[in-house]
Structure formats: structure tokens, C-alpha cells
């Protein structure tokens, strides 16, 4: 690789206007003029044009991709286009916009997919911009979808911010379709939180509905689908009357194992949690008070 000569003693690096530089590079975006690589993108098989030198110097994945392409003996020959069938053209254009200009234009319909592409192409700065946009524009409808992406792709900063939003709007969030479509791992992230602003009776009802939806989608029995998540329901918070109602409802689908409900009854009989994990005995932010909370569940309430 050619080496850039070292600057002479006494030389100074002077910078021109960043805005005009960015605008000039933006003019090359998806511009067939001087383009030397073509992408066939998405199910629509849309042609998008690029410049190998720009893409390769900005993205290691493209650098390696272009190295694997055979050299052309004649510059007039056409290289074979690169097929990218599993990404939307609008999403790939957003990635290219970032590579050419170090800026990206996002909206809610593509932000999560651009984040996925940023991770795929190893673009850390683009990843940060996507997380910043997604967490800054969360809504009740989109919060669970964003949390799911954060859990799937190991984005802990994004997961934390999504969970904070869900904690503040739990009663509305659990009514959304995206809540019902969560994976069991993502749902457990929510259920392990002390900050949920919902009472446990409502939460149990929402998780039961989640289990029934996923039972149909996965073609598995409700008890199998819910086996892990029900362990995070805080049945110790329920009164004896509510446990009786829960047992009656549970006979229809065996949503919660009998042994798990039995531990809650044992808690009421012995007035202690036995082998229960400590967090299962803690009230959430939205937990409505019951008599047994004050008497023997949480001494700090006395």
C-alpha cells in the first residue's frame, strides 16, 4: 500500500468548510456518474450505484468484499453486480448515505433495520446514531419491538432505555400487539423489573394472553410456551382471594404450574417466602397494596 509522505517541519493542517465537503460527497450518492459498482437490492431488485473507493475506505466489510472480486483486464468491462436481496433499498440507501456523508436520515419505519445493517457492516458510529434515534422516538406501540431488537443484538444501552420507557407506560404497553409478539427472553427482561407501573393481577393477565398468542404461532402447548416466563410472575403479591381466582382460571389452560401456585399458598400459610428468590417478594412500582404486604411481606411498610 502506498504511503502518504510525512508532513514537513513547520507545516500546518488547515481545514476547509465541512458543509460543502459533505454536500459534494452527497452528490455522488446513488449517482451512476463515475460509479464502478452496482448493487441489486431487495425483492424489488432495485439498482443502486456506488463508488468502490468510497465504500471500501469507509467500511471494512466492503473492503473485503471488493478484494474478493476478480480484477478486470479491461477497464471498459462491466463488473458483475452485487446481489443484496435481504435488505430494503431504502435501508441500504441510508447505510450508503452514512458512508458517503457521515450523516443518516432515519424514520421509524426503517430505523431498526438500519441498526441491523450497521451491526452487520461493523459501522459503530452508525449504530450509535440508530440507537440514539430509536430511544429518542420510542412510543407505546414501538417500545417492545425496539426492546426485542436490543435483546436480539445485545445492545445493552438500548435495552436499558427501552425498559425505562416500558416501566413508565406498562399498562398501555402490555395491550399492544408487539408485546404479544415478544420472545420469552425479551418478556423476561420486562418481568424481572421492579419498576413496572402495573398491578400483578393485570400483569398475569397480559402474560397469559401473550402465552396463548405464542402457543398458536409456535404450535406448542401454553404451559410449554410459558414455562420460563411464569417463574418471574410475583404470585406472592396476590391475596388469597386473588390466588383462588387464579387457580380457577388456571384449570382451563395450565398456564402456571400447580407447584408454582402452591408456593404462593405456602407463603400465606407460613408467612415467609421459603426458597423464593428475593425479588419475587418485592412490590413493583405499580403494585396495589394488600393487607399481607404490610403484615409480613415487606417489613419496611410497617
Task: Please tell me about this protein's structure.
The chain is mainly alpha-helical and 302 residues long. It is 51% helix and 4% strand. Strands 2-1-3 form a three-stranded mixed β-sheet. The radius of gyration is 27 Å and the shape is elongated. The protein has 16 helices and three strands. Helix 6 runs parallel beside helix 8.
Strand order of the largest sheet: 2-1-3
Rough shape?
elongated
Radius of gyration: 27 Å
Range of helix content: 40-55%
Order of helices and strands: HEEHHEHHHHHHHHHHHHH
How would you name the oligomeric state of the polypeptide chains in this document?
Answer: single chain
- Counting DSSP E segments of at least 2 residues, the number of strands comes to 3
Residue windows where pLDDT falls under 50 for at least 5 positions: none
Overall residue-averaged pLDDT value: 91
Distance between the termini: 74 Å
The largest sheet is:
3 strands, mixed
What is the helix tally?
16
Q: Structural class per helix/strand content? A: mainly alpha
- Give the amount of beta strand, in percent: under 5%
Structural descriptors:
single chain; 302 residues; mainly alpha; 3-stranded mixed β-sheet; 16 helices; 3 strands; 4% strand
Could you give the topology of this structure?
Elements: H1 18-26, E1 37-41, E2 46-50, H2 52-58, H3 60-68, E3 82-84, H4 89-101, H5 111-120, H6 124-136, H7 143-152, H8 156-168, H9 170-173, H10 177-180, H11 184-191, H12 200-218, H13 222-225, H14 240-250, H15 258-270, H16 291-297
Parallel strand pairs: 1-3
Antiparallel strand pairs: 1-2
Helix pairs in contact: 2-3, 4-5, 5-6, 6-8, 7-8
Amino acid at each position: 500500500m502506498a504511503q502518504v509522505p510525512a508532513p514537513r517541519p513547520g507545516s500546518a493542517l488547515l481545514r476547509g468548510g465541512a458543509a460543502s465537503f459533505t454536500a459534494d460527497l452527497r452528490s455522488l450518492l446513488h449517482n451512476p456518474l463515475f460509479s464502478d459498482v452496482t448493487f441489486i437490492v431487495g425483492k424489488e431488485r432495485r439498482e443502486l450505484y456506488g463508488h468502490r473507493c468510497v465504500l471500501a475506505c469507509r467500511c471494512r466489510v466492503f473492503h473485503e468484499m471488493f478484494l474478493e472480486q476478480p480484477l478486470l483486464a479491461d477497464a471498459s468491462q462491466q463488473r458483475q453486480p452485487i446481489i443484496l436481496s435481504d435488505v430494503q433499498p431504502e435501508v441500504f440507501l441510508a447505510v450508503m448515505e452514512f458512508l458517503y456523508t457521515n450523516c443518516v436520515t432515519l424514520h421509524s419505519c426503517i430505523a431498526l433495520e438500519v441498526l441491523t445493517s450497521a451491526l452487520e457492516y461493523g459501522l459503530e458510529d452508525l449504530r450509535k446514531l440508530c440507537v440514539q434515534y430509536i430511544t429518542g422516538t420510542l412510543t407505546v406501540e414501538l417500545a417492545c419491538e425496539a426492546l426485542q431488537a436490543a435483546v436480539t443484538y445485545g445492545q445493552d444501552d438500548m435495552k436499558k432505555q427501552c425498559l425505562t420507557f416500558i416501566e413508565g407506560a406498562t399498562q398501555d404497553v402490555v395491550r399492544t400487539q408487539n408485546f404479544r409478539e415478544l420472545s420469552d427472553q425479551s418478556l423476561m427482561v420486562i418481568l424481572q423489573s421492579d419498576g413496572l407501573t402495573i398491578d400483578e393481577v393485570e400483569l398475569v393477565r397480559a402474560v397469559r394472553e401473550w402465552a396463548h398468542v405464542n402457543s398458536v404461532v409456535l404450535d406448542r402447548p401454553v404451559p410449554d410456551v410459558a414455562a420460563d416466563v411464569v417463574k418471574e410472575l410475583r404470585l406472592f403479591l396476590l391475596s388469597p382471594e386473588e390466588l383462588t381466582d387464579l387457580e380457577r382460571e388456571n384449570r382451563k389452560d395450565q398456564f402456571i404450574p400447580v407447584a408454582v401456585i402452591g408456593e404462593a399458598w405456602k407463603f400465606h400459610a407460613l408467612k415467609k417466602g421459603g426458597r423464593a428468590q428475593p425479588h419475587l417478594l418485592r412490590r413493583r412500582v405499580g403494585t396495589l397494596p394488600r393487607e399481607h404486604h404490610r403484615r409480613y411481606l415487606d417489613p419496611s411498610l410497617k
